[in-house]
Amino acid sequence: MKHFFVVAREDKKEILEFVQKLTDYIEKRGGTCSYGINPDDALEAELDLPEDTQGILVAGGDGTVIRAAQNIFGKNIPMIGINRGHLGYLCDLDDASVYDAIDAMMAGDYSIEERMMLSGHMVDAQGNAGKEIQALNDIVLCSSAGLQVMHVVVYVNGQYLYAYNCDGVIFATPTGSTAYNLSANGPIVNPMTNLILLTPINPHTLNARSIVLDPYDELVIEIESRREDGTEEAEISFDGNHKRLLHPGEKLVVHRAKETTKMIHLRDVSFLDRIRTKLQADDD
């Protein structure tokens, strides 16, 4: 691996200086390095990568990695996160370790992890399907009016599953199990597995729990009005971006994405090691 591309969240002086150091280091070893900013949420644009790009270095936190995964979807190029913020689950490197990591990657001393992604689209009241949008972490449905209970009906492969009275529902990948799903008391799952997690947000019942579903299940979600005027609407977000509105009579369809996110793995650090480190940091 000799040709790299650095992705950052924003174009700040300290980032540019950091990228220049990376570029100089890579070029002295016979490689190339380009640089770009993650497109704005509203643009829904892809990153413009050189054709010879072999690896992507994401400078930022978990959020920058997640957005990069959306913006390079389908390009089949592996990436690795360089943590420049709070301790996260998706960034293996930091400012000090990145140079040894570059040496390892250029020597071919690495492995590739494939992370399952979700894909979702809206279906309007006339049955017209909207654009597919991908998510590495989760697809979340919640009330667009803030703190308001919704009646959410879920079908799996055409079969009725459950009707939740809740503040929302999270559909998470194994990678996303340590994100919003964890905050909603959902289970922590090894990110190398393939499954779909369904976790209700603040369900107004004692028997509503997270459900682990097959990765090839297709989920259809509807909201039913709890008021006579039928004006309720839900907001759908894909990894916190690309927000859409869902109204009674419309559907959200969620399923496994056709492509995966490929992560470069260097260190001999297990999933359990990373979880333990993160949990200890949260306790401090």
TrEMBL record:
- Tell whether Glycoprotein is among the UniProt keywords: no
Q: Does the keyword Isomerase apply?
A: no
Give the gene symbol: nadK
Catalytic class of the enzyme: transferase
Q: Where in the cell is it found?
A: Cytoplasm
Q: What UniProt keywords are attached to this protein's entry?
A: ATP-binding, Cytoplasm, Kinase, NAD, NADP, Nucleotide-binding, Transferase
Where on this chain does NAD(+) bind?
D62, G63, R67, N137, D138, D167, T178, A179, Y180, N181, L182, S183, N241
Question: Recorded E.C. number(s)?
Answer: 2.7.1.23
Q: What is the lineage of its organism?
A: Bacteria, Bacillati, Bacillota, Clostridia, Lachnospirales
User: Which protein family is it in?
Assistant: Belongs to the NAD kinase family.
The task this protein performs is described as:
Involved in the regulation of the intracellular balance of NAD and NADP, and is a key enzyme in the biosynthesis of NADP. Catalyzes specifically the phosphorylation on 2'-hydroxyl of the adenosine moiety of NAD to yield NADP.
Tell me the protein's name.
NAD kinase
Positions of the catalytic residues: D62
Catalytic activity entry? NAD(+) + ATP = ADP + NADP(+) + H(+)
Per its UniProt record, the required cofactor names are:
a divalent metal cation
Named from the GO MF annotations, one term is:
kinase activity
